[in-house]
Amino acid sequence: MAQIRIRNTNERITGDENVRQFLNSQEVIYEHWDISKLSPELQNKFDLTDDQKNAILNTFDTEIKDLVARRGYRTWDVITLTEATPNIEELLKKFESIHTHSEDEIRAIISGNGIFIIKGAGDVGYFDVELEPGDLISVPENTPHFFTLMENRKVVAVRLFVETDGWVAHPYEDPTFQKA
Ligand SMILES: CSCCC(=O)/C(O)=C/O
Ligand SMILES: [Fe+2]
Ligand code: NI
User: CA within 20 to 30 Å of 164's CA: 7, 15, 32, 101, which one?
Assistant: First the structure.
């Protein structure tokens, strides 16, 4: 279940309903996938072959197609980030820089954990969405955000894009951002 930390106040929001209410107020979708649908050998597995990544997408094909029908995504992938990922430092440098996407995107956590830091509306400021397996959020179009790993430094996520080129990011300079 996701948890929220509002950086300006250090307030934490927990509990599915409270988290959903807050995220929806920020136009961020918050849903759940049932990770137990995955065959046991694919759960908590981070060194995935292409076939295993396809098996994950096949397992959640109904959920993916439902999101496609609802929100028009046109392409999707599985990303795995661990210390063993080639170019992990380069990848993290990209993901940890504030950026926007010109479209709404989906991130569903399959294994491991990750934090999306999203710029909230009005005076909310940046808030952390700490995610665990089964948590799904959207990253609203043109919303400044970045991503970082948690202490376990590993995550597997399904990503859905409208952009047929997949992950296309636009750097966003934010002088108001305080690294905390
Ligand atoms: C765990 S998803 C990898 C990060 C990503 O796709 C993104 O857009 C971060 O902002
Ligand atoms: Fe992003
Ligand atoms: Ni774009």
Answer: 32
- In the chain, what percentage of residues exceed pLDDT 70? 99
**Based on the structure, what is the number of domains in the chain?**
1
Structure tokens at 166: 């997949």
| Residue 169 within a domain | no
Determine the residue type at 20: R
Residues 6 or more apart from 19 whose CB is under 8 A from it?
1, 2, 3, 4, 13, 30
Phi, psi of 16 (to 5 degrees): -50, -50
Is the C-beta atom of 147 inside 6 A of ligand 1?
A: yes
- Is 145 annotated in some ligand binding site? yes
Residue 177 domain-assigned (yes or no)? no
Structural domain containing residue 93: 3-164
Is ipTM beyond 0.90?
Answer: no
From the alpha carbon of 114, which atom of ligand 1 is closest? 1
Q: What is the pTM of this model?
A: 0.95
Q: 100 in a domain, yes or no?
A: yes
CA-99 nearest atom, ligand 1: 10
176 in any annotated domain: no
User: 33 CB under 6 A from ligand 1?
Assistant: no
**Residue 118 parent element (H or E):** strand 114-119
